[in-house]
Amino acid sequence: MRLILDIAVTHIVGRGRQTLVAILGVAVGVGFSVAMAALMQGGQDDLIAKLVDTMPHVQITDDRRTPPVQPAELAFDAAAIAGLRPREDRRGIINPTAAFAWLKEWVPGRVAASLTTQGVVRYLGRDVGATVVGIEPKAERGVSSLVEDFVDGSFEALDVGGNNVVIGDRMAGRLGAGVGDTVTLVSSSGLSRGFKIVGLYHTGITARDEHEAYILLKSAQILDARINVVNEIRIRLDDPAAAPAVARRAEARLGYKSMSWQEANEQILEALVVRNVIMYTVVAAIMLVAGFGIFNIISTITHEKARDIAIMKSLGFSRGDMQRLFVLEGLAIGLAGSLLGWLLGFALVYALASVHFELNAGGRELTRLPVAWEPLHYAIAAGFALASAAVAGYLPARKAARQPPVDIIRGAT
């Protein structure tokens, strides 16, 4: 084996310029594959982190996936009911205290109840449509990352009590209001009440920063004329991956629609899977192109060294030895290109991570390109490179090893 390795090195060094071009081709392929994978994986991780951090892992609302069975359906064999809805939709979660207590008994995480309603925030003749969320600040800290996003004032000011409100800085900008100003909240039921701004938050998500306002739960119930009503229970789990199982159990027991963050973002997650398939297909295509360069070199070597191959076979080298010889040459080029490609890939990823800019993409603010420093990306790129190099070396070696040595020495074609 040592002799075969020495011969392989001699062949590769003997065609230094072509070998260098092939190594550079593999290196460029590996380097750009690593950079592309790091950028796409970083974007995916950043998006999922945003989804996990900014929304509840499980959200239980007062909706139902299927309407309850009506008495007419029980009394008659043929009954069709459509558009079933109370004249005034003032529904909420029935007996929320019992539901809340049952969830806290077994849910591996934190639970918070809230009342969400639509309304208008008014200040000095300016109106902004808003989703008004009534919360209990102590419980909300356990399920929301909003506490960490304040740019003025504080979330703790809600604990003081009274008619206080915290809003997004974008909403404040549209209203021309700031901390300490009093705005008027008008609910969908037509009731209005003055609230003092005690904090401004900035999540980086435009829809939240422009159209959400948080007040105390009791204040929201009074404002919406829905005393003691809760229409949403939010859960934040210790393990976000357990959200589907928790949602199924909660919905089976309570009967209300329980949606995990995975279900709420199902289309996004499916798109990420498709994107990953496309990414690794492109990586394989890049490595395939680099493999053609290796194939060209090994084919040239086998053609030029045909007589050497014949002499070696006549001296006792087997067909398998010849195949191993040229496969080793292909793998040597692939390995050298992979190592150089790792350095190039690291440099590219470092450069991408250093780029600083201001961009509002899809309602999310970005200041740096999200990149992932994953050793797996380097291993996958090198794996594709070595696989293509091995195939590129095996194909011409297989053909050369089959040629009878006598015909080669006699000059037969």
Give me some keywords for this one.
single chain, 413 residues, alpha+beta, six-stranded mixed beta barrel, two-stranded antiparallel sheet, 15 helices, 12 strands, 55% helix, 19% strand, elongated
Question: How would you describe the overall organization of this protein?
Answer:
By secondary structure, the chain is an alpha+beta fold. The chain folds into two domains: 2-52 and 268-410, no CATH class; 64-256, no CATH class. Helices cover 55% and strands 19% of the residues. The strands form two sheets. The protein has a six-stranded mixed β-barrel with strand order 2-3-8-5-7-6, surrounded by four helices. It has a two-stranded antiparallel ribbon with strand order 11-12. A hairpin with a 2-residue loop joins strand 2 and strand 3.
Total count of domains: 2
Mean pLDDT: 81
Count of runs of 4 or more consecutive helical residues = 15
Order of helices and strands: HHEHHEEHEEHEEHEHEHEHHHHEEHH
Radius of gyration: 33 Å
Tell me about the biggest sheet?
A: 6 strands, mixed, barrel
Percentage of helical residues? 55-70%
Percent range for β-strand residues: 15-25%
Shape: elongated
CA-to-CA gap between the ends? 29 Å
Helix vs. strand class:
alpha+beta
Which residues sit in consecutive blocks of at least 5 with pLDDT less than 50?
A: none
List how many beta strands DSSP finds. 12
Task: Provide the spatial order of strands within the biggest beta sheet.
Answer: 2-3-8-5-7-6
Secondary-structure blueprint:
Elements lengths: L1 H13 L1 H39 L3 E4 L9 H5 L20 H11 L2 E15 L2 E10 L1 H7 L6 E4 L10 E5 H7 L6 E6 L4 E10 L4 H6 E5 H7 L8 E6 L5 H12 L3 E3 H4 L1 H39 L1 H9 L4 H36 L1 E6 L2 E5 L6 H28 L2 H6 L3
Helix pairs in contact: 1-13, 2-11, 2-13, 2-14, 11-13, 11-14, 13-14
